[in-house]
Amino acid sequence: MANNWREFDKYSKAFEWIIENRPMLIVEYGGGSSTHHINQLLDELDYGGRVIAYENNPEWLEHANNKGENQHGSIRLAEIEVIDHDKGYCRYIHPIEDVEEVDMVIIDGPDYRLLLDPRGHPFNATDNLELIVNHLGREVPYFVDSRQGVVRYYKDLGYTTQIPQ
Q1: How far apart are alpha carbons 161 and 165 in whole angstroms?
Q2: Fewer Cβ close by (within 10 Å): the C or N end of the chain?
Q3: Residue 81 bridge partners (DSSP)
Q4: Would you state the torsion angle of the CA atoms of residues 163, 31, 128, 17, taken in this order, to the nearest 10 degrees?
Q5: Is it true that the peptide bond before 110 is cis, omega within 30 degrees of 0?
Q6: Within 10 Å of residue 116's Cβ, how many Cβ atoms?
Q7: Which residue has the higher pLDDT, 22 or 4?
Q8: 105 neighbors 30 (Cβ within 8 angstroms)
Q9: Burial class, 156, CB count within 10 angstroms (exposed 0-12 / middle 13-18 / buried 19+)
Q10: How far apart are CA 165 and CA 162, in angstroms?
Q11: 161 pLDDT exceeds 80?
């Protein structure tokens, strides 16, 4: 694992966006080492930005806690709800009010390989960004970590604010 946010290459475009735009609230779906590196960057920039990360796997959260990756208490345990089993859509369950001030969404979870559709294929997408956009009445810039089903889902909805990988 990279020890410093600068070494966490798979998030380099997201970090560039954060440096340039200084979001006050980043919401991440799928917490862990990425959350730790976001917090490192936010601490270094020191402008008051924060991250809330939702993680559905209690063992992964415990792992992050044991490794010191949740030093700010940014990672919160949240259950996953199946929205459409046939299409492979799910969502993290959390109060929408907790993220009303969101300026950026990062989608890096859940581990879709653990959620299978009726054909035995991994799930495709979480609809949390869609819920946020519908609630706020505006698009929110978002970054997707290597989840092509999620990219297609939001592209099909016509979202235009994806931060490139």
Answers
A1: 12
A2: N
A3: 91
A4: -20
A5: yes
A6: 13
A7: 22
A8: no
A9: exposed
A10: 9
A11: yes
Give yes or no for residue 163 having a pLDDT over 80. yes
φ, ψ for residue 28, nearest 5 deg? -115, 135
Cα atoms in the 13 Å half-sphere on the side-chain side of 43: 11
Q: Which amino acid appears at position 131 of this protein?
A: L
Q: Return the axis-axis angle of helices 12-21 and 33-45, rounded to nearest 10°.
A: 30
Checking DSSP bridges between strand 89-92 and strand 80-84, what pairing results, if any? antiparallel
Domains of the chain: 23-158 (3.40.50.720)
Strands 104-107 and 25-29: parallel
Are 81 and 5 in contact by the 8 Å Cβ rule? The answer is no
Residue 6 has pLDDT above 90, yes or no: no
1 pLDDT more than 70: no
Residues 126-136 have pLDDT tens digits of 999 999 999 99
| Alpha-carbon gap, residue 122 to 156, rounded angstroms | 19
Residue 69 to residue 117: CA distance in whole angstroms: 32
Distance CA 56, CA 74 (A): 14
